[in-house]
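Thread amino acids onto this structure.
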């Protein structure tokens, strides 16, 4: 999974937590230190220039959209990942 990230990529978890991980090594530490607690699937993706956005749904809650995932690319690698959370 980490091969998709540029070494200077930014990973952002948005409101309500607003956590930013700058650089590939920080992103690796974040995933290893606090891995996802389940699996998810993505909804239909929309492409806007070099960005792709899709809703994500945790498999444990298949009837609820948990939020959105946006990946921004440059030269075939992710330079920014933004994870937002749905309002409950």
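Threaded sequence (88 positions):
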């Amino acid at each position: 999974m980490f091969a998709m990230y540029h070494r200077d990529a930014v990973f952002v978890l948005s409101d309500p937590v607003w956590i930013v991980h700058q650089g590939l090594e920080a992103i690796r530490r974040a995933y290893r230190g606090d891995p996802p607690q389940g699996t998810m699937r993505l909804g239909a993706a929309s492409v806007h220039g070099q960005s792709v956005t899709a809703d994500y749904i945790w498999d444990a809650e298949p009837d609820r959209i948990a939020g959105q995932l946006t990946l921004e690319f440059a030269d075939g690698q992710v330079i920014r990942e933004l994870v937002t959370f749905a309002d409950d």
